[in-house]
């Protein structure tokens, strides 16, 4: 994950661009003019729709995003351009075509229930001149992209001529083309690196009923052959992602809670494109996409996901390495803010944890039970020496942090240089501060910044000092 944070891939999205428009209100009466509800509109919101949600996901992951498509010379087109510019997307590749309507889908919502949708858009194929403008622009810029996504919503932008022209230019330049397909004929995507249909879409395109692994493999193979794909891929909703390269592999989903699957497909193609741009294998890219989707389906509405959220989610599943759980002051501050925004309770404790033993583990397990997120402040080597004497620590800070971070009860470890974690506690402001039972009746550093103080008794006979004495033979084992 760390190397992904160091990269800012350049990714181009070509496809159907639209605005999702929401009218929010309440309904308390029926119209006297007709048997329909009268909605009192309280607010309006507009967000990017269609390929725009893929763009939102790429931006959230940290990519530089450019977009190409065709819109009308109308008020909706001006609004769409403004929405894209607001998130720092390069819109120089967007073509204005006279007479075309920019897609805008308006939804009337009353009491959290959608009661009406009305669309204003063009669905016919774009003009040949628009196709030529997009391809001419791509000819001059294709080498500057790490990946390209074709986002097809069936609104006429991704014609056969455009798709084939884009794919041929990208293949010649060594740029992978990923496609979110539409319809039952995938021939226009022939030569792409991969497609990302869901199971229903794949069954429609292959005319194979996917009901088990045998039929799934048949569908993957048929897609790969008929569309001349490098990789054949099908998303399987709660069952994960199936990939066929030299053999079929299924990567199970890692979602813990599912609130809304809206936009999960956009998250999958965006995250796969991002990972492939970082030179990850298709296997690692699929696993990354599963993690991203796992975060998104735990949110309400079309959502995006950041690398930090994916890293934290992976850590919560205990599928990450210990390094991912070790944070700096600045990193833990951002983590706490995100957890608090989701209503999570933060617990903090600290110590030297020089030689990890069962007493430490039981203490930390109890500490974690007081909330959702356990952060452990860890004394640096110099700090331990000042507190325990020149012969300590036995284990250096890097080793101590790594072992702590590997424990299931510990979410994050934050090393600190001072003798006390005062500044760390002040910054985190934990809901619960946990200390050992030997602090009964004593002053505890940082309590003024914590919601509550909990004291936990140590396990009798278990301590680092006694462990060292046993090793030296000073006491009986």
TrEMBL record:
It catalyses: D-glycero-beta-D-manno-heptose 1-phosphate + ATP + H(+) = ADP-D-glycero-beta-D-manno-heptose + diphosphate; D-glycero-beta-D-manno-heptose 7-phosphate + ATP = D-glycero-beta-D-manno-heptose 1,7-bisphosphate + ADP + H(+). The keyword ATP-binding applies. Residues 10-304 form the Carbohydrate kinase PfkB domain. InterPro entries: Bifunc_HldE (IPR023030), Cyt_trans-like (IPR004821), PfkB_dom (IPR011611), RfaE_dom_I (IPR011913), RfaE_dom_II (IPR011914), Ribokinase-like (IPR029056), Rossmann-like_a/b/a_fold (IPR014729). The keyword Transferase applies. Residues 1-320 are annotated as: Ribokinase. One of its GO terms (molecular function) is heptose 7-phosphate kinase activity. CDD domains: RfaE_like. Residues 348-477 are annotated as: Cytidylyltransferase. Homodimer. This is Bifunctional protein HldE. The gene is rfaE1.
